[in-house]
């Protein structure tokens, strides 16, 4: 069992990441949207701050600005993702649509930094598009719900964040970059919430339970476990295991929320999963240097 410690931890990480969708959705029942984002990310940043404070102070001005720009991209993608959660009646389907960010990111990287995608990307992209088509078929008619449109835009926002994060991670210490990102998101969302949102007090104890789970379990513990696991696990294996997040989300959605399952949904999810599997496995196998950002999650 010790030989497979990394793999086992990564399985746990993907389940925690999937659970994060539910922690966030239930937290939003008792908190305003931006208030939830602000509290969650401010607290997560404060947990990391004592360990990164001195390295942040040592950053050059240009490095601080680059790290801040990643944080701004993060909050835009986060708002779109949270908005999708609010309106979603099918988290599993949304998770697969959101996972398309892994295939959108190479296009963004190509446009912004001239990093040309691998050949296998052009095989995977039409498969993913076909999967999105099957997910949009409702009773023989193409129809995208508001939540799925928001998740699709969130995946584009996440792809932009992933690319910027990957590019600037080469110049800024990882813990400093993470702390600044979390802080930018937390402070920006908190200010907006205080100015424009209405808080209904007292906040139920159940909401605080889900909120603390989203911070401590789905954010800090998940990041820590993923870091430890990836040191112990072969990169190819890690890439495949990390694909399980939308699968777990789909299963939990069926069990917890009793979401509907139908043939076109199954086909769509399988096609998207296959497309990402083909691309990620071949990229990792080829030793591509710009793939670390594919293993991040907002949940």
Written account of the structure:
This protein is mainly α. The chain has one domain. It has twelve helices and two strands, in the order H-H-H-H-H-H-E-E-H-H-H-H-H-H. A two-stranded antiparallel ribbon has the order 1-2. This is RhaT protein. Keywords: Cell membrane, Membrane, Transmembrane, Transmembrane helix. It is a multi-pass membrane protein. It is found in: Cell membrane.
Count of individual beta strands? 2
Number of H- or I-type helical stretches: 12
The largest beta-sheet arranges its strands as 1-2
Question: What spatial form do the alpha-carbon principal axes imply?
Answer: globular
Low-confidence stretches: 288-294
Topology as a string of helices (H) and strands (E): HHHHHHEEHHHHHH
Mean pLDDT: 82
Q: Tell me about the largest β-sheet.
A: 2 strands, antiparallel
Q: Give the number of domains.
A: 1
How much helical structure, as a percent, in the residues? over 70%
Structural class: mainly alpha
Q: What is the beta-strand fraction?
A: under 5%
What radius of gyration results from the CA coordinates?
19 Å
* Alpha-carbon distance between the two ends: 29 Å
């Amino acid at each position: 069992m010790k030989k497979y410690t990394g793999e086992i931890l990564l399985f746990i990480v993907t389940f925690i990441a999937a659970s994060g969708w539910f922690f966030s959705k239930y937290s939003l029942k008792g908190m305003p949207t931006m208030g939830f984002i602000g509290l969650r990310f401010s607290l997560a940043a404060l947990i990391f701050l004592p360990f990164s404070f001195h390295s942040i102070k040592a950053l050059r001005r240009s490095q601080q600005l680059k790290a801040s720009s990643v944080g701004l991209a993060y909050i835009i993608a986060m708002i779109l993702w949270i908005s999708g959660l609010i309106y979603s009646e099918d988290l599993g389907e949304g998770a697969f649509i959101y996972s398309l960010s892994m295939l959108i990111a190479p296009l963004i990287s190509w446009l912004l930094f001239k990093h040309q995608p691998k050949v296998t990307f052009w095989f995977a992209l039409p498969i993913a598009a076909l999967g999105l088509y099957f997910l949009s078929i409702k009773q023989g008619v193409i129809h995208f719900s508001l939540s799925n449109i928001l998740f699709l835009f969130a995946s584009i926002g996440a792809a932009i964040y992933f690319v910027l994060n990957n590019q600037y991670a080469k110049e800024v210490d990882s813990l400093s970059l993470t702390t600044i990102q979390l802080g930018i998101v937390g402070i920006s969302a908190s200010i907006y919430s205080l100015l424009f949102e209405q808080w209904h007090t007292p906040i139920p104890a159940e909401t605080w339970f889900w909120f603390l789970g989203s911070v401590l379990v789905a954010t800090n513990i998940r990041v820590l476990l993923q870091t430890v696991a990836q040191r112990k696990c072969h990169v190819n294996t890690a890439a495949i295991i990390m694909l399980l997040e939308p699968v777990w989300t789909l299963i939990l959605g069926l069990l917890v929320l009793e979401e509907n399952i139908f043939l076109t949904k199954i086909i769509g999810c399988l096609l998207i999963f296959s497309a990402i599997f083909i691309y990620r496995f071949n990229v990792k196998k080829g030793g591509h240097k710009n793939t670390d950002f594919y293993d991040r999650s907002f949940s």
